[in-house]
Every structure is written in C-alpha cells, then in structure tokens.
UniProtKB/TrEMBL annotation:
The name this protein goes by in its record: Shikimate dehydrogenase
Single GO MF descriptor: shikimate 3-dehydrogenase (NADP+) activity
Native source species: Chitinophaga varians
KW Cytoplasm (keyword) present: no
InterPro entries with a match to the protein in the record: Aminoacid_DH-like_N_sf (IPR046346), NAD(P)-bd_dom_sf (IPR036291), Shikimate_DH-bd_N (IPR013708), Shikimate_DH_fam (IPR022893)
Keyword hit for Disulfide bond: no
Domain Shikimate dehydrogenase substrate binding N-terminal residues, every copy: 6-88
Pathway where it operates: Metabolic intermediate biosynthesis; chorismate biosynthesis; chorismate from D-erythrose 4-phosphate and phosphoenolpyruvate: step 4/7
The entry's keywords: Amino-acid biosynthesis, Aromatic amino acid biosynthesis, Oxidoreductase
Pfam families given in the database record: Shikimate_dh_N
BP GO terms, sorted: aromatic amino acid family biosynthetic process; chorismate biosynthetic process; shikimate metabolic process
C-alpha cells in the first residue's frame, strides 16, 4: 500500500484527503491511500516519519509550511525562493520540499487576466502570500503588499487610498480572513474604490464566496475563489510524487 498524507494542525477541514481519496477511486488507482496527520508541533515530524516509514509523499498546510524546512534534505528552486513548502517527496532516502501553490495559483489566475490587470495588491504576508508573490514575479506583474500591520515593505490596510486601489486592479487575499466558520470577516480595505476593472482573487475556498469576494462583486468586479487553485496544486503534488 502506497501512503500519502497531509501534515498540519488542526486538520478538521482537509480538502486534500477528500480530493485524493476520490481521485484514487475515480481513476482506479489501486493500492494507494491518503491520510491526515495532525501534529500539534513540528517537533513531532521525525516521530511521524519513524512511525510511517512507507510514506511516499506529504502535503503540508498551516502552520508548518515554513517550519518544516529545517527537517528536509533538499528544496526545489521555487520552495527555496519562497521559503515555504507544501509538498514533500520521499525518494532515494531523501526528503525534498516543493511549493505547488505557485503552480496552482498561476495556472488558475492566468486565464482570467485582462490587459488592464497590470498591477497587483497582495493582502497578507504569510507562506501563501510568498507563493503568490513568486508567481506574480514569474508573470512580470508588479505588486504591493498590504496587511493589518505595516513594516518591511508592507503597507497598512488603513493607508490604502483611492489612487492605490484604482492602480492595482488585481487584488489577492492570501489571509484566512472570511474562511469558514468566520464567514463575517474580511480584510479591511476600502472596497468603495473597487470597480468593474478589478479582479478579486481569494485563496479561501470555503465558503465559495467570501465576504471579500461579495464586497468586490457588489462593486462590479470579477471574482475567483481558491478552489481551482487547490485542485491544480494537488494535481501538481501528484505529478511530483510520481516523477
């Protein structure tokens, strides 16, 4: 039996387990299973590997995308540049970290881009934000980063004015704000300056339409949630494990 899985904490809402279990059934991939491994601290990672020596691949979710790196033998270029890992391949006794969020995000975003989507506003500064920034760099889209607290090249939500909002027609929420069950939360940006020229992209997929996306749609913006990105990054993980 080939075992794959997901580490993170907590793991009450795991997209990956459902996705891969369904994939194995639908595509008649026998002898494969996908499990969730909630570990309360990353220091439990070596014990998990010792307990499951047959692991073929792991996905990594919050809060361990950055914390897991010291436990790995190698990193892909993207993972090294981003400083975050969401996919681990076990091969020839080595643990190599990859970042498939970049692939999922880029492939999901590109078909939606219009000629006027020339600048992006990235909301949040975590591991997911780093993957988004890396993808934007690959696509040659300049970006500004905003969060609740400014610093290190990051501006505060409160300092976003009409000129900034109108110039940055692509707005990406990389924070968990608005994710179920906290559906009444959203990044505190001036939504009144959003127009029909804007594209709002939310990495959150549950609920399908977050308050962030609802507020954008109310202003006539195009919107997209993170569901397709998740599917694409999961498929990218599968490709990496089976290379």
């Amino acid at each position: 039996m080939k075992t794959y899985g997901l580490i993170g904490f907590p793991l009450s809402h795991s997209f990956s387990k459902g996705f891969f279990t369904e994939k194995f059934e639908k595509e008649h991939i026998a002898g494969h299973q996908y499990e969730t491994f909630p570990i309360p601290a990353i220091t439990g990672f070596p014990a998990l590997l010792a307990e499951h020596p047959d692991l073929c691949g792991l996905n990594v979710t919050i809060p361990y995308k950055e914390q897991v790196i010291p436990y790995l033998d190698e990193l892909s270029d993207a993972a090294a540049n981003i400083g975050a890992v969401n996919c681990i391949r076990f091969k020839d006794g080595k643990k190599k970290g990859f970042n498939t969020d970049v692939i999922g995000f880029r492939n999901s975003l590109e078909p939606l881009l219009q000629q006027h989507h020339t600048k992006a506003l990235v909301l949040g500064t975590g591991g997911a934000a780093k993957a988004v920034m890396y993808a934007l760099q690959e696509m040659n889209i300049p970006y500004m980063v905003a969060s609740r607290t400014p610093g290190n090249g990051t501006v505060a939500y409160s300092s976003l004015d009409q000129a900034i909002m109108e110039a940055h027609t692509l707005i990406i929420n990389t924070t968990p704000l608005g994710m179920y069950p906290n559906v009444d939360a959203c990044p505190e940006i001036p939504y009144e300056f959003i127009t029909s020229r804007h594209l709002l992209y939310d990495l959150v997929y549950n609920p399908a339409e977050t308050l962030f996306l609802q507020k954008g749609a109310a202003q006539g913006a195009a919107i997209k949630n993170g569901h397709e990105m998740l599917i694409l990054q999961a498929e990218a993980s599968w490709d990496i494990w089976n290379k």
